[in-house]
Amino acid sequence: MIEIIGQILGVVAMILYAISYQFKKPALFYIFSFGGATAFCISYLLLGKTGGFVCNIVSVIKALYLWLFPTVKRKAHFVSFILLYVAVSVITIVLKWDSYLALLTLAASIAHTYMFFQDNAKVLRYIQIFLVSPMWIVYNVLGDEIAIGGILCETFVVTSSIIYLIRHRKDPKEEKEEEQIQEQTN
């Protein structure tokens, strides 16, 4: 019964994350991200997937921070935030070690945190497609218990990211001009 509740909470988390992508206002996005991270945290705990539980505790804190301090210049806090996030994640994973798979959650969470500080939406999506989601999918599939909600969530995120990249692709000439403009402003 506990596993069923864990799976249901994983699906609820996926739904909350899916809804979060529909909001234009950052506050609503972060509220639903906070809810999704919290639901995943409890889901992984009930499924006995300690690495996922640990990384989602830190994700809950990250989403709460971004929700409560939306106007703070995140770039200024980038290095300290990443270092704190990595330190807390490593310490917690070492203390609650369940398997080598926990390292996947750590790497995926660090890459995901790095994503939040990207200005380029395409770079953000490539990091998600090629780093974050594959690591979480492997983690969700392997181990004693499969995390259905986690697999569905990452599949949705990859699909959504690919659709975004297709919808917003530009011809090479237009992309080159945009890069030159961006270089001039930096």
Q: Which SSEs are present, and which pair or pack?
A:
Layout: H1 2-20, H2 26-47, H3 50-68, H4 74-95, H5 102-115, H6 121-141, H7 148-167, H8 172-185
Structure overview:
With 186 residues, the protein is mainly α. The chain has eight helices and no strands. The longest helix has 22 residues, at 26-47. The N and C termini lie far apart (55 Å). The model has no long low-confidence stretch (mean pLDDT 80).
> What proportion of the residues is helical, as a percent range?
over 70%
- How many domain regions? 1
Strand content: under 5%
Overall 3D form: globular
The assigned structural class equals mainly alpha
* Run of helices and strands: HHHHHHHH
**Treating each run of at least 4 consecutive H or I residues as one helix, how many helices?**
8
* Main sheet attributes: strand count, strand direction, barrel closure: none
Overall mean pLDDT stands at: 80
| Unreliable stretches covering 5 or more consecutive residues | none
The total count of strands amounts to: 0
Gap from first CA to last CA: 55 Å
Q: Determine Rg (CA atoms, Å).
A: 17 Å
